[in-house]
Amino acid sequence: MSLQPGSSSGSPLEGAGRKSNKIGRVTEESRKMREENMIRMRKTEPQNILLRKRINISGLNHQLMEALPEIIERVCAEYPDHRLEVNEHFRRLTVGEEVPVDEVLKKGILPHLVGFLSRDDAPQLQREALWIVSNFNFASGTSQQITAIVELGVVPPLVNLLSSTDEDTREEVVFWNIVRDSANNRDLVLNHGALMPILGHLQPQSKLSMLRLASWCLSLLLRGEPPVSLEQIKPALPVLQRLVHMTDEEILTDTCWALAYFSVGETERSQAILDLGICPRLLELLQHPSDTITLTVLLFFGNIVTYNNGPQTRFLIDIQLLRRLRRVLMREYNKSIFREACWTISNIASGHRDQFQVVIDANIIDSVVKVVHNAGFEVKIEAAWVICNITFGGYTDHIRYLAAHGCIEALCELLTYSDLAIVRVCLLALDSILGVGESDRNDRGNSFAKRVEQCGGLDNIEMLQTHDNNEISKTATLILVSYFAEAEMDE
């Protein structure tokens, strides 16, 4: 294909209400929204990992409240002969799904249990206390409750128990609710040295249950904003390099989440992962039957092209990421997966002009157009950005290619939506396309303008003349005057 510069030649909107021919896609606001979406996607934690180990006995909360005075009296009196018995009794009363954390905190029993966590000389007592404290940490939901538990000094002994010589004790350590509550708590756990013992549990000889639990904990330690410093988490890289080649779905899911969290931020973070040589494996995982694994891998690649639109994006292009994304868009529809795939493609299409060509060469535009026509609105928006980014910065032949593959009709469809930003960019993209059509005008007129009219786009643009948003109404009016004046006169 011979490419000629000047994608917006002949456009009357150049310099008229448009600040730039290329509208920036990736802003600090969109990056922040992306990071929040990543956290929101994972609100539902794999609670069954630990719930499997607990006996669900319902209806015992009232018994717990009735028994607390006696329990507290016996524990606070520090009767050595009764501590284990008390712990065992208390454990049986705290296995329900709705543990009354506030009430227990007010009664003052947890400080004693936290103290028992350091009793290496009494392993059974220590294990019972760990079971109870872990259950309270697991059950607590509010930040206020978690803060109260943290202020009791629970983190240091929990981290120490990660290195216990007793395997069952190591598996019982639970601090996920503390870590996920805030970046400060996450950093507190890391600063007390949790990373290295967790990595120590992620060795090939570890049993499957421990690998699953430790990979989950590792992903949580890498989560949150601001990201953990690269130097602090570098030791995790070779472990992630090994885990990504495992076949267990739970381990793969948590490993891919860890990589997605790791890749947020500065170029050095992404490069550290790319240097591991795991991208071929991640490309394979885009075809994994698990939607969650596919999504998390897409999040990883999306982070690379969002934060580092340069040599790293070029590297992903060279290893045929776009062709893999095309295959993703050909699978059964999944809102989150399709949205993330289109996000990644649109950011590749927001780079240098040679990147527009590789998007076209990947034969992915037809799939993008289908997404615009058939997907939900949030996904349509991401697909539309693929088209718009190429029209804003592409050569005229790039725009002709888009027009030949149904992009005019796709953009016109989106003019009926209430989202002001997408209506505006679709109008500007249509202006670019119509400008090329005007430069190609022959005795039959502007063929692109005729297609806008045939698909109902002209009616949509006419309605936008009276839009409440001044920029939209002005742009619609200028398009009508520039490309459809003859049609108006004929009427």
TrEMBL record:
Pfam families: Arm (PF00514), Arm_3 (PF16186). Residues 1-13 have a biased composition (Low complexity). One of its GO terms (molecular function) is nuclear import signal receptor activity. Transmembrane segments: none annotated. GO terms for biological process: protein import into nucleus. Keywords: Protein transport, Repeat, Transport. GO terms for cellular component: cytoplasm. InterPro entries: ARM-like (IPR011989), ARM-type_fold (IPR016024), Arm_3 (IPR032413), Armadillo (IPR000225), Importin_alpha (IPR024931). Gene3D superfamilies: Leucine-rich Repeat Variant. The keyword Transport applies. Residues 1-33 are annotated as: Disordered. Belongs to the importin alpha family. This is Importin subunit alpha. It comes from Sphenostylis stenocarpa.
